[in-house]
C-alpha cells in the first residue's frame, strides 16, 4: 500500500517511537503504566458511546461511534475485538479510540474483550477467554454470520487461534476476521524479517517477542522442547478458515509472519487478503488521529467488514 506522509514526518515519528518503546529491563507493571499514559494522551474521537459489560468472569466494553443505529438483537452485527499488548498489557480503555474508529468506519458495534493477562493468568487463559466471549455472543442471540473477529498484535494471534480452535471443534465459524500485525508463529520466531527489519522497526524486536512468548507460558528465561501447537498457527492445517484480511507494515519484524501465513493459507484454500503498508510499523493504526496511512487502513477495515457482512447475509 502507498504512503502519503512525508519521509521527514515518518522519520520523526519513528525516532520518537523508538525512544519511547525501549522495553528492555522494564517490569510488566511499568509497561502497563506506560501504555495507560500513552493512550490517555490520544485526542478523543467525538460521538463515541461506550458501555462496560461483564461477560462471565471477563470484562468487556461495547463501543459505538457516530450515529450507528442498532437493530433487533437477533439481527445485530458485531465486531469481537481482541486487543494487543503482548499478553501482559492492554485493556478496553486503552483500545477505546481504535475500537471507536473501527466502529465508525464499519458502521458496526465493537465489543472489546479484556481477556485475563499474564503473568497473573498464564496460557491457556487468554485463549479460553476469547472462546468464551464468542460462545457468550452466540448464547445471547447473535448469529455467527453477523460476527467478525478483529485484533492487533497478540490480539490478532488470539483471533486466529480462536478461529482454528472453533474449526477443530467443528463449531460454527464467524463471518471472517481482520488481523492487524499478527504473530502467526509465537513459537519459532524464525521469520526473516526479525533480522531484515530489526533496525527499521521502531516498536518490535526478536528479544521482545521471546519475552511475550515466555511470559504467557510462564517460562521466564527457560525454553521448552515442545510448545502448544495452537501458538503456531502458521504451522497448523489452515484448511476451512473463513475470509481474513491482514494488514502489516513493511518495516516491522512481524512482516514475515503475515506474508508466510498468507501464502500457506491461500495454498490451503483459505481466502486471505494481505495489505502491506509502506514505511509502516506494527499497529500504526493507533496513530490514526495524525497519520493518514492509519486512517486509510482503518477505512479499509471498515469496507472489508461491511462487504463481509453483506456477503454473509446472501
From TrEMBL:
One example of the protein's molecular function in GO is: hydrolase activity
Q: What is the native source organism of this protein?
A: Paenibacillus pini JCM 16418
**What's a Pfam family this protein contains?**
Abhydrolase_3
Q: What's the domain of life for this entry?
A: Bacteria
Coiled-coil stretches are 14-41
The Alpha/beta hydrolase fold-3 domain extends over: 79-285
Q: Which UniProt keywords apply?
A: Coiled coil, Hydrolase
Protein's recorded name? Esterase/lipase
Amino acid at each position: 500500500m502507498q504512503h502519503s506522509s512525508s519521509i521527514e514526518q515518518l522519520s520523526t515519528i519513528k525516532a520518537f517511537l523508538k525512544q519511547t518503546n525501549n522495553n528492555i529491563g522494564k517490569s510488566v507493571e511499568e509497561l502497563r503504566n506506560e501504555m495507560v499514559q500513552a493512550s490517555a494522551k490520544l485526542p478523543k474521537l467525538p460521538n463515541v458511546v461506550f458501555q462496560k459489560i461483564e461477560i462471565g468472569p471477563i470484562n468487556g466494553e461495547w463501543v459505538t461511534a457516530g450515529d450507528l443505529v442498532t437493530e433487533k438483537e437477533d439481527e445485530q452485527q458485531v465486531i469481537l475485538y481482541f486487543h494487543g499488548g503482548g499478553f501482559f498489557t492492554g485493556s478496553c480503555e486503552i483500545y477505546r479510540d481504535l475500537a471507536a474508529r473501527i466502529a465508525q468506519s464499519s458502521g458496526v458495534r465493537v465489543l472489546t474483550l479484556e481477556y485475563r493477562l499474564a503473568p497473573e493468568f498464564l496460557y491457556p487463559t487468554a485463549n479460553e477467554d476469547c472462546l468464551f466471549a464468542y460462545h457468550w455472543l452466540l448464547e445471547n442471540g447473535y448469529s455467527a454470520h453477523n460476527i467478525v473477529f478483529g485484533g492487533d498484535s497478540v490480539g490478532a494471534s488470539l483471533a486466529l487461534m480462536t478461529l482454528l480452535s472453533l474449526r477443530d471443534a467443528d463449531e460454527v465459524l464467524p463471518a471472517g476476521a481482520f488481523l492487524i500485525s499478527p504473530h502467526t508463529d509465537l513459537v519459532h520466531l524464525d521469520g526473516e524479517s526479525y533480522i531484515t527489519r530489526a533496525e527499521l522497526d521502531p516498536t518490535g524486536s526478536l528479544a521482545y517477542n521471546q519475552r511475550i512468548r515466555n511470559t504467557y507460558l510462564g517460562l521466564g528465561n527457560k525454553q521448552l522442547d515442545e510448545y502448544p501447537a495452537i501458538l503456531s498457527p502458521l504451522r497448523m492445517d489452515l484448511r476451512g478458515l473463513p475470509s481474513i484480511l491482514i494488514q502489516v507494515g513493511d518495516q516491522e519484524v512481524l512482516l514475515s509472519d503475515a506474508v508466510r501465513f498468507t501464502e500457506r493459507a491461500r495454498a490451503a484454500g483459505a481466502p486471505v487478503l494481505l495489505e502491506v503498508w509502506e514505511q509502516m510499523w506494527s499497529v500504526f493504526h493507533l496513530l490514526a488521529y495524525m497519520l493518514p496511512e492509519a486512517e486509510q487502513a482503518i477505512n479499509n477495515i471498515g469496507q472489508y467488514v461491511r462487504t463481509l457482512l453483506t456477503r454473509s447475509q446472501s
